[in-house]
User: Fold this.
Amino acid sequence: MELALMDNLWVVVSTVLVFFMLGGFILLEAGSTRMKNAGHIAGKTIFTAGIGSLVFWAVGYGFIYGEGNAIIGLSNFFYGDFSYSGEGLSPATDFMFQMMFALVSLTIAFGGFAERAKLSAYVIFAILFSALIYPVVAHWIWGGGWLGEDGSQDFAGSTVVHLTGAMAALAATIVLKPRIGKYNKDGSSNEIAGHNQVFTALGVLVLWVGWFGFNAGSTFGVADAFLGFVALNTQLAAGAGAVAAMFIAWAVTGKADVPTTLNGALAGLVAITASCGFVEPWAAVVIGLVGGLMVFYSMKLFDKAKIDDPIFALSVHGTVGVWGTLSNGLFAVPELSTDIGWGQAGLFYGGGFTQLGVQILSVVASGIYAFVVAFIILKVMDKVMGGIRVTEEEEIIGLDLSEHGGYGYPENIPHPAENNKAGA
Amino acid sequence: MKSYAEIRHFRDEYIQTVSTNHDKLNTFHDQLMKQSVQVAMEKVQSERGEPPAPFAFFLMGSAGRFEQSIWSDQDHGIVFVGDGDCQSYFLHLGEEIVSGLVQVGYELCEGNVMASNPVWCRSVDEWKLQLETWLEEDRWDSLRHFSTFFDSRVLVGESSLLSELKVESFNVLKEQPRLFHRLAENVGFIKKGIGLFGQLLPEQHGEHSGSIHLKQTVFFPFVNSLRLVALRERILEPSTLSRFKQLPDKYHQIKSYENDFQNLLDFRLRLRKDAQDYHEVHHIAKKALSKEERQELKLMMKKGYKLFSETKIMMENECSTWL
Assistant:
């Protein structure tokens, strides 16, 4: 009983840590974008967290963990269970922890909306993503769905949380198209620098701290004190990611670019998310290093492909989310996989290609589902709502003013309405 | 009397015929600018009468160093004999010259290093005082102003006025040799042109993405090194090539880079002769370069870095032996 209560306590602490990651996203996103959108970017994270919580309570949890079939769960809607059997996590503890993951995934998806989507688009998409996209993938892998049955290993959610969010972000960037001024007529791209690298760096640090809840909390308990090992892997991968990204940016472009370095730390974290409970520390370092290198090239590739991703959500959570999931198929050790009945060992540990195949399948299936459904939803929204992007004038004056009627930094931005009266 | 429009027309017609020869091109620029200044002087004379004192109009920057490519911006100043009362006349002249040169095709100087700016249009005495203050203040921007000033030559007027100022600054430097170290530090940032893998490092973003910024990555190390040595050896000549030529024999090591600089000038002219404006002149698209040209460019970059680091060490040694 006492151990079970400690488990509950640990998971509630982790719940708080994961929720605090939204604070990291607020700083990260606001810092990586322009001043005129700062209040909007920060504020929308709070209210979409509100929407996401309500939807998760109403249907999200039920679709994931309810009694159902291999595709979707269909019970436990409007969840509210104060019972506790005295063993394991109390239902509400488990529910709260799961909810936070849904909110993080939603926030990642909104990275693709940055600096150009209407506020109303956030509202509608927050509801639909939280009901129709995230819960389905989460059910497939964690909720007893067909991928989980296959032995897919995703310890804390490289695929479920990060890839799903990133695929929705990809659909959004494609439907919304690049920001004004991002690309020149000759096809070259401009750097639209974020307004505050200190915010961005602090955002990364807050996320990093929160990630201990994300990964180590996903042990769901304190038995064997396995959470310490998971935390160790998490720390090593994040450090390796930051180092690798700064190195590769410096080596290739001659500049030790700060945003790239910051994204490298996040890449290390995203990459180790799937594998933090399956691999040895040396492998965590390799997984983080590769994540850091990948994020640099991925950012360049999306930029070249004219996909405007203001806060690099596609690279950090998408590209690296895929790598993180696949890395299990290479590095998972038998003691933490085969021996405990959670999939197979990886390729480098004599597990052959079996687990790698399962990991590939879960990435492809989840990625396609999240992208296609998000794309359809956004296209329909675009038609029905008369466009999900703000007008050109609104984009120029900034979403703080156009969507909220105020400024994040009122002292520093002139009131355009006073200077540019139409017809004056 | 020619008009600015006529000079511009003349420029457009003939510049391509001299665009691949360094000497001819710079002589042509001198000719255009001289004519423009004459027009400006006559205009101001008709409005305000004869100049109130003898003066010299001098060029700085790439024009001062006789190192312009086909497009260039304006960097110039005026020094006059007499007191501050004359300044308003010469400032007015400076303004007229600036507007004339713009019409002839020379962009405004972003840093406002132009004879229309009181900082760069002064009497001999004020200039001396200003130079002394710049050196004594020993701030990053004041030393940068001094370096800009030192790459200068008279285009119209009394050459001796400018030489007098330069000699005056040699004297200040002689008394305070530590300034050589400070002047070397002042230009110590070199934009990286070659990466870890020996690859060229083009711009990553913006209209010039994929291009190499020639001036910052390749020219500056040569130009800055030779300026430092010229200050040390009291060489009045502003052009990098003539500074090379006038170096005493003991600088044989530095002299060995003269050919590289000559190659660099030729390289730029060869590749940039069709540039459409001032910004294009400085950017070379990596894609447009052949394999051999890339190798050539990298070699020149490396030579430049090496020259600058050798010069810097020399300056530091000189400082310490004098102290």
